[in-house]
Each structure stands twice: as C-alpha cells, then as structure tokens.
Amino acid sequence: xxxxxxxxxxxxxxxxxxxxxxxxxxxxxxxxxxxxxxxxxxx
Length: 43
What we know:
By secondary structure, this protein is mainly α. Helix content is about 80%, strand content about 0%. The longest helix has about 35 residues, at about 10-40.
C-alpha cells in the first residue's frame, strides 16, 4: 500500500483483516504439516 489510511475505522478494519489472514494461514500450514506427518507415520 502506498497511501496512508487516515480513517481510524478503516485502520481497525485493515488490522483485523491482517490478523484474520494470519490466523487462516497458520491454521492452513498446521493442517498441511499434520497431514504430512500422518502420511509419514502410515508409511
């Protein structure tokens, strides 16, 4: 983003969106790693 967000409401929404994206990413990576671990255990 090249321009500054000046509206506090917009800043809060952006912060929440970033946090949500981070949580979703962490959960997806955890599921991926657990599936690989389970596959290795079954072999």
